[in-house]
Amino acid sequence: MKYWSEIKYKLTDHITVAMQLLLLMLGIYIFIMAEKERFWKIPMLFIGLMVWFFLQKKSKHPIIWIAFFALLVFDLYHFYFRVANHHFMLMFMVLPVIFYMYHQKRSILLKNIQMLLVIVILTSVVQKLLSSQFMSGDFYYYMMNKGSIFGTFLNFFPDSLEVAQSNRASMLALYALDPNEGEHIVLNNVFPYLGQISFLFAWATVAVEFLVAIAILWKPRHIVTHLLFLTMILGILCTRLETGFMALLAICGIFLCHNIKLRLLYVMIVMGCIALVVTKLGYH
């Protein structure tokens, strides 16, 4: 009970907890990206760290946040066509936090996080609806047959795992051929009725994401909203280890959630994703 009391006390100030986890995630991401264009990043990091270390108590400016945001902008400029979705998500999460350091209005920060979440999830829904390949189930059919999603669970089905490995080997052999020869392969289904399953799963994905977006827009702090949001996050992690992006979504959940136990679940998801990111497992 003593430890639970300490945990509850720690989670009481959910904004501080969310900002701490966001800063941790941001620092890890900056470290991962640090080797790219290191010649320019060394002086930026050196000056930022020196100013933060010696002047953090004398300056009213959030120096470390601004320095990290500058590095995010730098990477966006140089690797615009290569950075993943979580890079943009990080930038749009850090900006409201920097503004919050100046205006100190919790309601504005939470509204910004809420609208960011709604826009991100609804954009995902629209992108899927506009993709005939996704809505037909072809995307899931292809990814399931080569074991790129639900790959962990395939280990419990040796026959299906063997089929997925055979499909991947066939794809690699096809990629090595001259495309002008017109060669093709036929994928073997890892499970029966995979075409129908893929079609239903695609529509279920869109329906769940749309429902979550509307719930966050309408009732951003309601317990049912966060149960739906947590279900979506955990469902995506079971489907595919999108560790970086799911960690950021969970941090947004901490910002908006008023239930202590659900906050703890969000924190556990963030910590788990961070552990996977640091050990380079999943898609970070």
Report what the structure shows:
This is O-antigen ligase domain-containing protein. Keywords: Membrane, Transmembrane, Transmembrane helix. The protein is mainly α and 284 residues long. It has a domain at 92-278. It has 14 helices and no strands. The protein has helices spanning 2-12, 14-33, 38-55, 63-78, 85-103, 106-130, 132-135, 138-145, 151-154, 158-175, 194-218, 223-239, 243-256, 260-278. α2 (14-33) packs parallel to α14 (260-278) and α8 packs across α11 (194-218). The model has no long low-confidence stretch (mean pLDDT 84).
For the structure shown, list the relevant keywords.
globular; 284 residues; 14 helices; mainly alpha
Class based on secondary structure composition and strand pairing: mainly alpha
Report the total helices. Answer: 14
Most strands sheet = none
Distance between the termini: 35 Å
| Radius of gyration over C-alpha positions, nearest whole angstrom | 22 Å
Question: Average pLDDT, to the nearest integer?
Answer: 84
Helix content: over 70%
Stretches with pLDDT under 50, minimum 5 residues: none
Label the overall shape.
globular
Q: What is the ordering of alpha helices and beta strands?
A: HHHHHHHHHHHHHH
Query: How many runs of DSSP E, i.e. beta strands?
Result: 0
The amount of beta strand, in percent, is under 5%
